[in-house]
Write a structure and sequence with these properties.
Layout: E1 3-4, E2 8-11, H1 18-25, H2 28-31, H3 42-54, E3 61-69, E4 74-83, E5 89-96, H4 105-120, E6 125-131, H5 135-143, E7 147-158, E8 161-171
Parallel strand pairs: 5-6
Antiparallel strand pairs: 1-2, 2-3, 3-4, 4-5, 6-8, 7-8
Length: 181
């Protein structure tokens, strides 16, 4: 286990997570604003889980936290972090199974990761990016104190269409450790 919150365990992915990862990534509502296509085959999930398990949360590059609901011992989502080479900046992203959305789990998980990055690791800035149409992800970032820093017009080609991306940033000096109410 890497981190725990009141309701969640944030840990490394393990091989047994692949079927659940494939299931929630195959949900068109979860995949809508993400770079993968639904359905997300089990073989692809198995390869992803292997790559996630080999990565390190302490070295530059990508790390994916598996988010487990402690009470059910069930994988409910993931939080992505890309650490920059300077180990002072990172990018964050998240995806959660539809059944576990709108219940505060994503806010709780992302808050835990931000606490680690800012408080434990001394990071200076964390950024987030989302499709302009993804109002729920934008709202989550804003609840956590991220500030909108820009709009990249027709920046990303996802599922055959060019999408506008919102850019968000959060400085260590702005992180309170609590989501805005």
């Amino acid at each position: 286990m890497l981190m725990a919150t009141e309701r969640l365990i944030l840990r490394r992915f393990r091989a047994s997570d692949a079927p659940v990862l494939a299931e929630y990534r195959s949900d068109p509502a979860v995949a809508r604003y993400q770079p993968w296509d639904a359905p997300f085959p089990l073989e692809k999930a198995e390869a992803a889980v292997r790559a996630y398990a080999e990565a390190s949360p302490d070295t530059p590059g990508h790390f994916q936290y598996a988010v487990e609901l402690a009470a059910e011992q069930a994988l409910i989502g993931d939080v992505y972090v890309r650490l920059h080479d300077n180990l002072r900046q990172a990018e964050i992203g998240f995806s959660f199974a539809t059944a576990y959305q709108k219940r505060g789990f994503a806010t709780e998980a992302v808050s835990a990761v931000l606490n680690r990055l800012f408080r434990r690791d001394g990071f200076h800035k964390v950024t987030g990016e989302c499709d302009l149409r993804n109002t729920r992800s934008a709202a989550l970032l804003e609840r956590l104190g991220f500030r909108r820093e820009g709009l990249l017009r027709q920046q990303t080609l996802i599922k055959g269409e060019w999408t506008d991306d919102l850019l968000y940033g959060l400085l260590a000096t702005e992180w309170s450790g609590e989501p805005a109410r």
